[in-house]
């Protein structure tokens, strides 16, 4: 294991008097908080990260994995903006795998099973040694807030810790996860906690209420942990990682371990006995009887059995570390008492004699209605106050980290008097996530899926750097070194693409050259190597053939070959998609003012549309058009009004 050294960097702008001052203060050391602090300090903003305990910074509180379908896209985009989480995954994983490979590459999902201890160690090592970033153990109980000059809004100017210390700043980011009035449910018991063993944040929740913010309540859960030595793996199916393993970060050509060093992930299923145990004890689970909304796509075993009592449900058994005997049973979240949880576990094949090392539990927590946020994740009502992570109604490490990096960039940008950094939903899954939250709000914990994105062919995992890195560099969050690496990669892709287009042969010749590797003959006249790339299964053989003929494509064969193959395969489809993207971008440029008056008599809208738009307050025409209940005629009337009156009428 790597040794963690804690070294704090100071900057001339930081005053260490009784009233220290920072550009950005981040509250919370989870995945949203660490990503926010990293992004802000990347922009040379003096940043303070506050966490209740330094030892829990980077804690993987639930599942020991990152990525997956949709979520893997987010990680690649975080990396494209010079985030930290994907790089840590590349040096902390136990198994690396691309999910959804039976479908097209646009919806593949890079995923990694992670060593919890190694991840936290590596992340803390990076965070504690980051220039411009100061880390402190403290609990925040209140905010330093003043009324704006017009008296209608607030301005956040810092935080107040539980010991009464005031720390001033230009921007504050709250990333409290499940800690806002967190309440753990275990069987019929309930007790205050942000997670098992940590105190909830009560004062901060009360402060947000006093600011007049609309808040709600959500719940989530985690499964019990199992003793690896008591599991009968001989009866279970297993899967292996990819060979070779694929990195999350564009900076890495490979991950830290070889294919042969990756661990196995085992699969088992619930049994009819499992369903009976659940049904017989359902009255002992407060979790399932609470009316608070839980996670739709990661339900508890109680919810699954009640909805599908006859089904067998998959349970993936994932080891939590190389030197750890704890196993995470993915798919067995529950809120039963400890003894009932043991019965549930022992009813599953392979787990008949398995011992629990820790019970699962349900947790309820406060969240903010995300429609109160700008696309920059700054609150409309409180200038300088940004929110990221589960506080905005999301679930998952990746969704939290995605909001964290955007909030961090924008908090630093505000401190540096820069324009906000906005990722369009036509450019990245980061944009889809934030647009969905700020436009539609949440009725349940939000989780990312590829199906949420309209332009999936364009927003693939392989081209996240081509979509976002240059935009991030212009904003100042991408380092010069990283930008140079990106520029070299981009130039190499273009060079290879043009080279492939220049290599032309008759279709008959291509058929003869690749005869052993294709099942059909190429038709037509002359084709370029780039045209041939569109044929599934030909890519690797084509490159091998060209290299034998002395044509140098690239040293970085696997990663760049894949990118070139995707570009060739999707080129014609992308031409159609790009025209749609341009239409959406035009609508996004039609900005609706923050204080827009939907009651203006000159605005020809039905009363229902006025109410819906007043409630959601979309940031642009594109966002307004995606709100359920807002019809095309209402959007057209809104466009007409904006174009005719807003540019000249100061009273609008």
Automatic annotation (TrEMBL):
<dbReference type="Pfam" id="PF01134">
    <property type="entry name" value="GIDA"/>
</dbReference>
<keyword id="KW-0285">Flavoprotein</keyword>
<dbReference type="InterPro" id="IPR049312">
    <property type="entry name" value="GIDA_C_N"/>
</dbReference>
<dbReference type="GO" id="GO:0005739">
    <property type="term" value="C:mitochondrion"/>
</dbReference>
<feature type="domain" description="tRNA uridine 5-carboxymethylaminomethyl modification enzyme C-terminal subdomain">
    <location>
        <begin position="568"/>
        <end position="640"/>
    </location>
</feature>
<dbReference type="InterPro" id="IPR020595">
    <property type="entry name" value="MnmG-rel_CS"/>
</dbReference>
<dbReference type="InterPro" id="IPR047001">
    <property type="entry name" value="MnmG_C_subdom"/>
</dbReference>
<dbReference type="InterPro" id="IPR004416">
    <property type="entry name" value="MnmG"/>
</dbReference>
<protein>
    <recommendedName>
        <fullName>tRNA uridine 5-carboxymethylaminomethyl modification enzyme C-terminal subdomain domain-containing protein</fullName>
    </recommendedName>
</protein>
<dbReference type="GO" id="GO:0030488">
    <property type="term" value="P:tRNA methylation"/>
</dbReference>
<dbReference type="GO" id="GO:0005829">
    <property type="term" value="C:cytosol"/>
</dbReference>
<dbReference type="InterPro" id="IPR002218">
    <property type="entry name" value="MnmG-rel"/>
</dbReference>
<comment type="similarity">
    <text>Belongs to the MnmG family.</text>
</comment>
<keyword id="KW-0274">FAD</keyword>
<dbReference type="InterPro" id="IPR044920">
    <property type="entry name" value="MnmG_C_subdom_sf"/>
</dbReference>
<dbReference type="Pfam" id="PF13932">
    <property type="entry name" value="SAM_GIDA_C"/>
</dbReference>
<dbReference type="InterPro" id="IPR026904">
    <property type="entry name" value="MnmG_C"/>
</dbReference>
<dbReference type="Pfam" id="PF21680">
    <property type="entry name" value="GIDA_C_1st"/>
</dbReference>
<dbReference type="InterPro" id="IPR036188">
    <property type="entry name" value="FAD/NAD-bd_sf"/>
</dbReference>
<dbReference type="GO" id="GO:0050660">
    <property type="term" value="F:flavin adenine dinucleotide binding"/>
</dbReference>
<dbReference type="GO" id="GO:0070899">
    <property type="term" value="P:mitochondrial tRNA wobble uridine modification"/>
</dbReference>
<dbReference type="InterPro" id="IPR040131">
    <property type="entry name" value="MnmG_N"/>
</dbReference>
